[in-house]
What we know:
Strand content of chain C: 15-25%
Radius of gyration of chain C: 19 Å
Shape of chain C: globular
Shape of chain A: globular
Largest interface: C-D, 53 and 54 residues
Helix content of chain C: 25-40%
Largest sheet of chain A: 6 strands, parallel
Radius of gyration of chain A: 20 Å
Bound molecules: thiamine diphosphate, magnesium ion
Oligomer: heterotetramer
Helix content of chain A: 40-55%
Strand content of chain A: 5-15%
Number of helices of chain A: 11
Amino acid sequence: MAATARAKGARSAKSAKSAKGKAAPASAPPEERTRLALYEQMIRLRYFEKRAYDLFLQNLVKGTSHLALGQEAIAAAFGVAMRTDDYTFATYRGHNHTLARGVPMTPVMAELLGRENGLMAGKGGSMHLTSVEHGMMGSYAIVGAHLPIACGAAWSAQYRGSGQVAVVFFGDGATNIGAFHEALNFAAIWDLPVVFVCENNLYMEYTRTSTITAVEHPAADRAAGYGLEPLAVDGNDADEMYHVAIAALDKARSGGGPTLIEALTYRQGGHSRADPAKYRPQAEVDEWLARDPIPAYRARLLAAGIDGAVLDGIEKAAAEDVDTATEEAKAGALPGPDLLMKDVWADGGASWRN
Amino acid sequence: MAATARAKGARSAKSAKSAKGKAAPASAPPEERTRLALYEQMIRLRYFEKRAYDLFLQNLVKGTSHLALGQEAIAAAFGVAMRTDDYTFATYRGHNHTLARGVPMTPVMAELLGRENGLMAGKGGSMHLTSVEHGMMGSYAIVGAHLPIACGAAWSAQYRGSGQVAVVFFGDGATNIGAFHEALNFAAIWDLPVVFVCENNLYMEYTRTSTITAVEHPAADRAAGYGLEPLAVDGNDADEMYHVAIAALDKARSGGGPTLIEALTYRQGGHSRADPAKYRPQAEVDEWLARDPIPAYRARLLAAGIDGAVLDGIEKAAAEDVDTATEEAKAGALPGPDLLMKDVWADGGASWRN
Amino acid sequence: MAELTYREAIARGIAQEMRRDDRVVFLGEDVAAAGGVFKGTVGLLEEFGPVRVRDTPISEQAILGAAMGAAMTGLRPIAEIMYSDFFGVCWDLVVNQIAKSRYMTNGQMTFPLVIRSGNGGGLRFGAQHSQSVENWAMAVPGLKVVVPSSPADVIGLMSAAIRDPDPVIFLEEKALYPAKGEVADGEITDTLGTAKVLRTGEHATLVALGNMVPRAMSAAGDLAAAGIDCTVIDVRSLVPLDTTTILREVARTGRLFTVEENPRLCGWGGELVSIASEEIFYDLDGAPIRITTPHIPLPAADTLEDLAIPSVDRIVATVQKAMNE
Amino acid sequence: MAELTYREAIARGIAQEMRRDDRVVFLGEDVAAAGGVFKGTVGLLEEFGPVRVRDTPISEQAILGAAMGAAMTGLRPIAEIMYSDFFGVCWDLVVNQIAKSRYMTNGQMTFPLVIRSGNGGGLRFGAQHSQSVENWAMAVPGLKVVVPSSPADVIGLMSAAIRDPDPVIFLEEKALYPAKGEVADGEITDTLGTAKVLRTGEHATLVALGNMVPRAMSAAGDLAAAGIDCTVIDVRSLVPLDTTTILREVARTGRLFTVEENPRLCGWGGELVSIASEEIFYDLDGAPIRITTPHIPLPAADTLEDLAIPSVDRIVATVQKAMNE
Ligand SMILES: Cc1ncc(C[n+]2csc(CCOP(=O)(O)OP(=O)(O)O)c2C)c(N)n1
Ligand SMILES: Cc1ncc(C[n+]2csc(CCOP(=O)(O)OP(=O)(O)O)c2C)c(N)n1
Ligand SMILES: [Mg+2]
Ligand SMILES: [Mg+2]
């Protein structure tokens, strides 16, 4: 599909705007079971994060935590589109991307609560969710760092001939840090099987990214600088995201090299638990709440003739899973002293002397 | 002139190729005294570096040193075009840019020889030539670092309303490091009076830059990513460089913000004294030796009716200056112990304790 | 006299200096309109305007490059690196450029700039947002390094740092942001390179920095109750280091204990012990002892983080054991 | 048995490991076609081909990110950072990502990778190309740090570093690249975390690293002639640190002298002195003394650089003065 056709060393970049047109594919909607999977994913992510939010308010979540309420369509689309052995690299805003790879809710919730049954036994915390067995290769809390790291996993896949693809999610604000630039050029020249997904939710922490970025589309308008096609898509449309994800994954898997996707979306809440997000005009918030990816998608599925009872079932199951996860997480023990000095080194220990 | 017209937030980049056409200005050649100044500059730089090379061979130059033989037109053009209080930021390959700001030859030569009468009394060495009184704000040896630093000097000029412009020179290889990306975006969003000059001599140290860069023009093809016009020019044509320099400096001085210039040129010698440059095809070297900026420019001046005796005089004077500088540098004392513990701090000392 | 939080003291210190010197400018991420992610710079944009107080992109190299270039051309910039862990993405500017350029240019340039950064653990932020990096900076010639432990010191040392002609790494202890303290009215300024003796004792000297200072003080209280009478010194400034005050107290008491939040290896306490051992070896009545975080990345869970960072109890137990040997 | 330079030993060590394990890949700037700017990797491209030996752009963050991502997914990459000063532009990957990710993920990941880098002064390259950064790395939990001082150790420790399952910072002393030494034929491998006693004496122990080792050895020769009989220890590995060997010798001789090329503050010698003072205080017969480069950026001029870095004469004079006090 044109939106992901690669023009290596492309001398001229079509504007993200025009690409945006192209990005909405003429292709048919995904088949029903795919759409149901997408809906189920979005619902599970939404319910999980709403519960996580309640638990902050009860002061059960220690440290910080970053919700992606409103951005679920992107994580869901890739979660459904990726091969089970593909690699995901996320940021501190990584709950959705972790769950979307099939990581159970309980260890994720328990990690937020700092319990021993947490995904990393409480040693990593909410910003570093990782589950290697699910291809969730980590959540990274220093802006930009994981783009080069994802290139490394892609390089390894290329070297091993495994056909795996690395998908790395990052924000609009991350496009202005040096690591972004180095990773994009590096991936392009080595034709690495990596998909760069910029979740453009318009804001860094409290600053509107457009006020500190030289171009309108922080990712898409940089694509030409790496010989890539600009690609700006609606990150709140699960079907469109799914098509774009499939195309980028196929291209990477077949040796076509990297794709840079800018998915427009919105962070319905604050940057982190500490943030009431007062800096955003109410009109803007309202506009985006109206573009919430989930209700719209539910309506679309009903319009497509899917039985509402099926969707009810999905919602009910997700709600039950969240309740169970909450109980199991709360019941988790606090990590004990034995964990403190474990696993600095591969031998399981932490000794710096002989 | 079109070549420097700024398209802030430009959504679409014209290709560097087309810009190259535009970059050769329709405008009239510089006036005669400007052209003589350009010739004099090029000759002085060329003679100086040839002598520096001889001194390596005599093992009088300590440490390393990086020549820019063949790249003189760029330094000369900016040297002539800049205002005396403008700021220059260069790399380790900075002899030419230092001399072009009017720094006398003796202290530069003496610095290469590690003498007390060196520009920094031998404490900096050839990679860090600096002369604040001449607006030569330093030569930097870590690739990329000085681009953000130049932004700072430009920010300061903007804040003080001084009308000064910062000009920063860097190589083609430097366009793939993160600092390049951060500096360009930063300069664009703050409309900083800074001119970024990429001296594209086709190579990093021993690696051809085109083999590790995703686009054909490492600088110009990135311009659109910062809302800047692509601009690739002939760095071996002193007249063209001069016009481009004047346009970029005027634009910056009048609040028009940054310009990114890619000047195509060639490093006639190796990367550093250690490098015989065997990795380059002889045909390529020959082609570029044929495009040496100096003989061509001499011929052009003669064709324009300038008396050859005037040019002979320029060459004779430059040769004498180089001889004098060599003698004075060689006669310089070796830096003494008193210098070792001086000027870590503004109080002139180096104490870390009270 | 007013009671202020450590957090509030930051804006007060910066504002005090911006009022008296319009060469002082301030930039960083979310520092202007939002008043800082730790709310340490609330009100500065309103008072000094968008030309002197500027929000930046997430471009730490650009932030520090801007500060360095501005400092070498006559301004006195303050740059914020939100968390000190992020020095990792702009370390070149700090250690290779800012720290060295004065020396390399034989004194042609000076760099009157301050880099403020939230430092240290205790907030359950995990390994990438909790480091104590003071020793990273201390190890690099050309940087002054300051870590205040009270609101009054925040103001005084901020003032001194901004007025100082050299680059100062000003580390704000995140765990202390909510800490309250009495602060005098009017202009407050202080002197870099001076340690503070917070309490004088006969038996041992505890030397602490930043977030460890209040813990050392309460440990000293408990130890006094147990019959061990300690001097407590707040280092405040690692470079310049006030060895005069510290060595005097260590020599007088004969015993040295350092309390360091950093992971053990190459911490400032090791440097201090080596200085004391070399210069006042025969005044030491027993082994100098370092109390530090073990040499591990910091875990996120509260129970684990509390086990890692030196606690009052660990300080008390360590000192008691050593003194009773 | 063959005589090899330190420079040649690098390619030999890497080739030895690339032959036995095709998970070992190598990337860096100018390392392949050019064989490295120090000519340390000549022949590797020819033997192992462009898929395993790759030239990169000037993108240190990409280089180390690539190594980290490859290591967590089954490869055993070797990355070159041309000069160790350049860690400044990729420090985040080293200290925040590579060093911490195993611990943060509760052991889900391992990072079997080696970062090679040219380290130290003596070549008149000036302040930005001459630093000894071993202590920057030693201060960060999760990194192993190795600095060989001879061609044989280059091969053996390179082999050990590549086979080690943890990230190893492998610092090659630029000043030693031309140094020659005898090297056994066939496979050579060694053990990380082991110091070497190069010479045994009764009166004092000199502990040195990298480029300072040959200087400590010749100083020991001069000192012996002057009646001071020294043990000389080559630390070789800062993390893990062979405290068993070092403390044994220091306790036996009663005197400790460290010889460090790094600027003084927070050098490994300070850490070592603090360990010795804490653990074998009563075995020390006199003040432990550190011989280091003063705490300044390194000057470029040969005369000045030679004054800055510890010389044989300075070692001899310092030890003599201290022993005769
Ligand atoms: C190098 C670095 N600088 C600053 C920060 C602090 N920080 C954390 S998240 C964030 C905003 C990131 O914005 P964006 O990339 O748009 O991602 P989003 O949070 O919107 O998903 C900032 C500035 C950081 N973690 N790392
Ligand atoms: C961050 C960093 N990486 C690598 C180097 C080593 N190095 C010095 S010059 C150079 C090549 C630079 O090429 P280019 O930018 O084209 O400039 P040129 O030397 O051609 O003028 C390299 C890789 C460095 N100094 N800094
Ligand atoms: Mg965002
Ligand atoms: Mg070049």
